[in-house]
Structure prediction request, 538 residues.
Amino acid sequence: MQRYGDFESYPSLVVKFLRSYFEQFHRAGLSLFFLSWPTMKIKSLLARPFAGIVHRKIQKSALTAVADQHRILDEIMKKAAGTAFGKDHHFSEIKGHGEFRSAVPIRDYEKLSPYIDKVKEGKQNILWPGKPIYLAKTSGTTSGAKYIPISSDSIPNHINTARNTLLNYISISGNSNFPSGNMIFLSGSPTLERIGGIPTGRLSGIVNHHIPGYLKKNQLPSFETNCIEDWETKLDKIVEETINKNMTLISGIPPWMQMYFDRLTEKSGKHIGDLFPDFSVLVHGGVNFSPYRAKLLDSIGRKIDTVETFPASEGFFAFQDTLDQEGLLLNTDSGIFFEFIPAAEVFDENPTRLSLQEVKVGDNYALIINNNAGLWGYNIGDTVKFVSTNPYRIIVSGRIKHFISAFGEHVIGEEVEYSLMNAAHEHGARVVEFTVAPMVTQDEGKSYHEWFVEFEETPSDLDKFSQAVDENMRRKNIYYDDLIRGNILRPLVIRPLQKDAFINYMRSQGKLGGQNKVPRLSNDRRIVEELEKLVNKI
Prediction:
């Protein structure tokens, strides 16, 4: 599963977005009038006018994106000038993005960790004024657990963007009924610990503590079930708690939603759409949806709206703002100043750093953020492409550390996903999951890319299917094509895997469920050495 972001913003935000509106009606003296109405119907009723307001605000903000970005940079530098980081990098003397680029280098978590370590010790005014109100704990690829600061200034980015995503969806779709039913996010445990006196845990758990009591009744699963650490035990309890409920919105990372759907169908014998007649919207993020779309919609058994998001512990970066256009609207007025590095330069000592107005449609960029929680020149590890600059909409193209370049080809996630899914569509195949690694040999022309694919429906002619995938790859990546033409590589090889191979692999690694994902691309064979044991012998 090719990860982007963390997708941990939704467990409470799905139901939290009406809170402020209830309070406005209360102040207006209209509370008694609504006491005679069923609570769930009130939510649907109140959502409609505010959805229109939010939609218009989003449209207006999209027109001022560049100006908003430069204003945000000035604001966050001014506020952080007195912090340890601000003093070390002379924030009080910086004017504009050009001087900022010269003063603040690009850092990943490991390079920023000396500052974060001081935050974890309970010290104040390190990256942002005061202390963070939370530390969001998330997985790192080389550093183990990462602890991402969330400030009182930055938490509205997580809360309000999730709320606005759903309200915008209501406005553009006309569907205001889902707040009347039960909603679920398949997330990690909401249990928090303390580090340096700061509440610490998964972002999903942090946000869970912000739900007002009167909105908890239509959020599932229960808090007790959400706290279960073992994924399969937790999943069984979730199925038990939801199978007889009126589920209207379901959200999560696609592969774990599919496991949930499979368990529900196994227990009920029904399509999800029949089991939950009022289920009308599926919210997803964390991985590219394309490889999972067909199977998820087949499990549902009928047409349903889908809404894509791009949230992470570091911030809520983008969201789907239309029902019929490609890409996610970049969140340009929410406390984050974005920078973009051409992907080919990301490991250079002095890479090109572009601001929003300098980006081009179709180019692949590493996403860099500077935010109002104290992340500066921070490389989040995701790559994006702009599909539009009016407004600024992106697709998530992959992960910086998840690529194959064993022979100089620099194959990225977007290319392998496109190549496989197009071939699957043409050959009537159905893909569950896959990962790709290089097979390096010493004989000229014998090395190749090895694809480990779990099929729900295996293509009738695997050789022709493999050829189609390879041809797609050669069209998408000219370096790969050159290596094939030059007899440096031979065409890719596909290894079909046994049913539930990836689930069994994740179980063997102790990483089943939650926010854990299998990388789609690797430059080594550590993952596929385990998957080789699960190849389907046909």
